[in-house]
Design brief:
Number of strands: 13
Number of helices: 14
Shape: globular
CATH topology of the largest domain: Aspartate Aminotransferase, domain 2
Helix content: 25-40%
Structural class: alpha/beta
Largest sheet: 7 strands, mixed
Number of domains: 2
Strand content: 5-15%
Radius of gyration: 22 Å
Order of helices and strands: HEEEHHEHEHEHEHEHEEHHHHEEHEH
Distance between the termini: 20 Å
Length: 416
């Protein structure tokens, strides 16, 4: 199998050089080129359609990152956009709220097992931080036990500057799937822990994505009850993707609070903190949260229409079928070419990681270089997503790109 030629990214790279003069790093965080294969991936995107993106140089890709998860349907959804445009004619940013707020909140309460009351916001970091503040206000305790990525705010960022050590000390991390590590922290800090916040489907950075081990979420629930702490599920990624009611519905474990975002509105910026009324009601009595833009209605309209389509078209069932085939075929191809890599994740959120052995970084670089050159947009350090508009032909083309990339890796690095 021959290597594919490097893509023409001339305009994208020129815009990137300009961007670095205008903004620190040119763009923020995980979108910087060194988080991909520097020089091989586009930086600027022109447009999207169905399950594809097109960069400013005209290269067309099957996108299995889906904007890091918000795109659950496709990149151009006229039904959602038309509903949003109709709302624009009424206005969407007011001192007070619009009726659609109640409509959306009632829908979320109907769908999500733990939802008795709802607060709407804009981003995942907004609502994970809101949930922590609610839990602290409800319990009158400060310590947070976390597992997973929960955003960029001070309470949950580690290894980065600008955060006071005293703030970092109020959050302790435990290992996903390990109930013993969690209980050790609960015992050590008994009486000081406000909440446990966990991603129901594990996704540690650059490691295999992990479905909940049997009994794990039930065990976390039991420990939260035993030590009388608030249990928060971070469903930013899993909400409206693994089930309409989130991972808590699919796996049958109900938290006290939960946060949703990403796929909820197919790319429009909205998130929700939901939970038991008794706990949520501290927002009325003792905990302050407010924002100029949280009540904006365009995103609420988009979310309602997106949820309508998800239910009407049985979207999640469709995504699971495509994802199951994708995972099975990826497993088969890795075995066929005897490449030291691991296929992980759940059907809506697949991932290929390279096992840590001799030359694994070189193998990884070669693999993702060849997949992007073949028009498959996936990333070395983040799991992928399946979208509703990914066709069977898209899945076939993605698997073909993966097979050809694996064949090259196997030929260039024959020894494990």
């Amino acid at each position: 199998m021959k290597q594919m030629p490097k893509l023409n990214l001339e305009k994208s790279m020129a815009l990137y050089e300009e961007a670095k003069k205008l903004s620190p790093g040119g763009l923020l965080g995980i979108r910087r080129p060194y988080n991909f294969i520097d020089g091989e991936y586009p930086v600027f995107i022109e447009r999207g359609y169905d399950g594809h993106i097109v960069d400013v140089d005209g290269n067309d890709y099957i996108d299995m990152l889906c904007a890091y998860g918000p795109i659950i349907l496709g990149y151009h959804e006229p039904e959602i956009n038309d509903a949003v445009k109709a709302q624009m004619d009424k206005g969407f940013c007011f001192t007070m709220v619009q009726e659609v707020q109640n409509e959306l909140e009632k829908k979320l309460i109907d769908l999500i097992p733990c939802a008795e009351k709802v607060v709407l916001a804009k981003t995942g970091s907004d609502v994970t931080t809101m949930a922590v503040r609610i839990a602290r206000g409800y319990t009158d305790r400060n310590l947070v036990l976390r597992c997973g990525y929960h955003g960029w705010h001070d309470w949950c960022v580690e290894g980065h500057g600008g955060v006071p050590q005293k703030t970092l000390d109020m959050t302790k991390e435990f290992e996903y799937g390990d109930l013993e590590s969690l209980e050790t922290l609960l015992k050590e800090h008994d009486g000081d822990v406000a909440c446990i916040i966990v991603t129901p489907v594990g996704h540690p950075l650059a490691k295999p994505v992990v479905a909940p081990p049997e009994g794990y979420l039930e065990g976390v629930r039991a420990l939260a009850d035993k030590y009388d702490v608030v249990l928060v599920f971070d469903e930013i990624r899993t909400g409206f993707r693994v089930s309409m009611g989130g991972a808590q519905e699919r796996y049958g474990v109900t938290p006290d609070l939960a946060v949703f975002g990403k796929a909820m509105a197919n790319g429009y910026p909205i998130s929700a903190c939901v939970g038991k009324a008794e706990i949520m009601d501290v927002l009325e009595s003792k905990v302050f949260v407010s924002s100029t833009f949280f009540p904006n209605s365009l995103e609420m309209v988009a979310a309602l229409k997106c949820i309508e389509i998800l239910e009407r078209e049985n979207v999640i069932d469709d995504i699971y079928k495509k994802g199951e085939r994708f995972l099975v075929e990826c497993e088969r191809l890795i075995k066929k070419y005897d490449v030291p890599a691991t296929v992980s994740g759940i059907p809506p959120m697949p991932y290929i990681t390279f096992d840590k052995c001799v030359d694994y970084k070189e193998r990884r670089t070669r693999f993702f270089t060849e997949t992007i050159r073949r028009g498959l947009f996936i990333q070395p350090y983040h799991h992928g997503y399946i979208a509703y508009r990914h066709t069977d032909a898209d899945i076939d083309a993605s698997l073909k790109a993966i097979e050809e990339a694996l064949e090259i890796v196997a030929a260039e690095y024959p020894e494990k």
